[in-house]
Amino acid sequence: MYPFQDFGIAAAAFGDIAGVLFSALAFGGLIFATFMQRRELSLQRQELSLQRRELEQTRSVLQAQLETERLAASLSAATAMLEHYERVAASMPPVGSNKGAFIEAVQIMGRVALEGEVSTARARIAEITQMLDEFVKVQKRADAREE
User: pTM of the entire structure?
Assistant: First the structure.
């Protein structure tokens, strides 16, 4: 018998045991990594869900701002039109200034048409103002529900 024969058998046995232990540790690490990835994916899904909700809220706020700006632009245009009609009406000479029947008839027709336009512009301003008020009320209710 060789003097190192027992040592070789012991070394082989140690190698077998170490191999089994390291294989078990590697398998345990693989299972641990799988659970960690599952947890990380779950957290990412939650984060994406929160981002989606935030984007929907941002979209609704932007739509509300767009509607408000559209109504404000309509109100500004109607107000400018009303001011123009009022300036034109103020610059017209008074009826009965003895310039002839035809000219007076044209002036009267012009005033009647202008008064119709002025009343239409005032009605449009009132309508837009009411729409803005309703829109603000709806937005306040929506904001209260979100909180």
Answer: 0.49
